[in-house]
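Renewal narrative, Specific Aim 1. Our central claim is that a sequence can be written position by position from structural information alone. The example that follows is taken directly from our test logs and has not been curated for this report. It begins with the structure tokens describing the chain, in the order in which they were read.
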């Protein structure tokens, strides 16, 4: 049975915040609620159980698939239930978005906060994590429920390339869900930067207004004058506000929304181009707040 740690914060406005984690299954944020309002798409639980995706998955120490030259040696397919399916699809990297979401973390917690750590010298089922990831690394995750919402610090140090990010599946509600943010006038499609289309903007080219009737797998850069990304996911009866900062220019966020899916993934990242050249170290501070209408 998956062990769940639930943080709880009674706020001065009378509402109560709850953040539930599965630290022994990739530090997944399996639920984030304000009173009874759940913003993590629970219909993705099957993805979490089958392949450690869905719900509130992490990104790190790498983004998407490793290049062939960085792949670790093959491992026993029986180690994880998803490996055989990944190989059947032709995917050589069976740990998409990094090993951190697939294995247990070391952690401590109290009523409102949790602190967790994972490194390449940890082991899982007889394998060092360095053998599963293909490099040495250390990742840390700290989260605290505060008056304004969930405050997260995520970091990585790696010998090759280190990136961290949140791959949270936010639930969509109603017929007019959209994403708004102030961004640079370019977007990233599979590693290539292109001009931001007029139909995605309002008022001026830097004001993204992305209608979630359309699918998306695009990256965006925070407006350069602030280097802080503020992204609003608008729903029918509530909004989710995501604020992220890396402390430097290695900063972007990804929007992933398959056509007619019940969720939108808004993924703050500690790299400007996660499919390009990335640093060995990465840091991310993210604040997530819930606003009922």
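The sequence written for that structure reads:
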């Amino acid at each position: 049975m998956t062990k769940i740690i639930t943080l709880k914060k009674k706020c001065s406005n009378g509402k109560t915040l709850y953040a539930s984690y599965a630290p022994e299954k990739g530090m997944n944020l399996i639920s984030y609620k304000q009173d009874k309002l759940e913003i993590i798409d629970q219909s993705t639980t099957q993805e979490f159980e089958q392949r450690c995706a869905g719900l509130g998955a992490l990104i790190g120490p790498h983004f998407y698939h490793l290049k062939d030259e960085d792949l670790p040696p093959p491992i026993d397919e029986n180690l994880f239930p998803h490996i055989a399916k990944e190989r059947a699809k032709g995917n050589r990297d069976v740990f998409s978005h990094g090993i951190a979401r697939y294995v247990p973390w070391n952690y401590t917690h109290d009523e409102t906060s949790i602190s967790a750590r994972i490194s390449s010298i940890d082991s899982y089922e007889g394998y060092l994590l360095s053998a599963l990831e293909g490099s040495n690394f250390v990742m840390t995750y700290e989260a605290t429920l505060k008056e304004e919402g969930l405050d997260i610090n995520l970091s990585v140090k790696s010998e090759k390339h280190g990136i961290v990010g949140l791959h949270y599946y936010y639930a969509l509600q109603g017929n007019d869900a959209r994403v708004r943010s102030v961004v640079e006038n370019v977007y990233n499609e599979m590693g290539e930067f292109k001009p931001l289309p007029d139909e995605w903007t309002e008022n001026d080219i830097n004001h993204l207004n992305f209608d979630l009737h359309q699918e998306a797998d695009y990256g965006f850069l925070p407006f350069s004058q602030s280097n802080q990304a503020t992204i609003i996911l608008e729903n029918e009866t509530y909004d989710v506000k995501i604020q992220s900062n890396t402390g430097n220019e290695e900063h972007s966020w990804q929007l992933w929304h398959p056509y007619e899916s019940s969720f939108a993934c808004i993924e703050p990242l500690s790299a400007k181009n996660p499919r390009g050249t990335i640093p060995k170290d990465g840091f991310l501070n993210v604040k997530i707040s819930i606003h009922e209408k």
